[in-house]
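STRUCTURE REQUEST FORM
Protein name: Methyltransferase
Source organism: Legionella massiliensis
Requested output: structure tokens
Priority: standard
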Amino acid sequence: MNKEKPSATAALILKVVLFESKSDAGPLIVSPESAQLSQAIANEIFKYPKIFSFLIKNKLTRGLLLFIESLLNKGFILHVATRKKYIEELTIGIIENGCTQLLNIGAGYDTLCAIMASRYSEVRCMEVDHPNTQKQKQAALLKSYAPSNLYFLSADLSKIGIRQVLKDQTIIDLNKKTLVIIEGVLMYLNEDDVNKCFSDLIDLFSNNLDVIFTFLDKRANNDIQFKSASPLIKWWLNKKKENFLWGIGKDELTMKMNNLGFTKVAIITKQQFITTFFDNSNSEPVLAEGEMICHASMSRRNSKND
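Status: completed
Returned output:
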């Protein structure tokens, strides 16, 4: 990531969410709350938000944008939207099962923490992200949408680890049941940093820990990329200094998480997205393939209580 500018991929994902919110499947995949908050953030960070809003509503320009997507990475827009919806539903289930803290690492312009903070006043919702990305988002939300249980922690995670960010924070209770979300982040880290992130989280949270994260599949040629991605995608990521560095096969990941001490590991693939959201559809939707969700759970007793 360019350290002097907000994340380019975070802005791209925000545009994708807003685009999909105007599709026929939009109300099913993008909640009204998410669409409203995403628009508020867009109004703050986009240079010409009204023009962008027109483009994603206009039938002609929508068709052109979908044609361009089909050339660059077919199905990417719907993949991102369904990925986010699936994570939202997992999050709701975990919260309703007793989780009292939600931590989103590298949240970008995602609205999940803000929505959960509004729905569940008893849950402490926290976001950690680079200050250059976070300050614009925070400014947009504070104008009209600031639940008292929503917290922003600014940190450059390329310079300091998550342990350093959290260990001295008074707003987080390391003994409470916690859900950590790391969506669209780990593929930008090298393997050592990924391993350190997980080991830090395990060491920090002494009781119940759930982790939901996305990962890219490592292909046979060791290429880390969506299967349908054009070479132009790699060029753009390189230009923005946001290259994909880490990928892993789903079987290898399951073994890795088990070895770390996670007792329950579930991998959610493209087919599960389709089954969950489009089971009654007349035709199977096209989703980009190569990125999956992992939900891993660990339950340990605090040594003080043993």
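Reviewer notes: The longest strand covers residues 208-216. The two ends are 44 Å apart (CA to CA).
Form closed.
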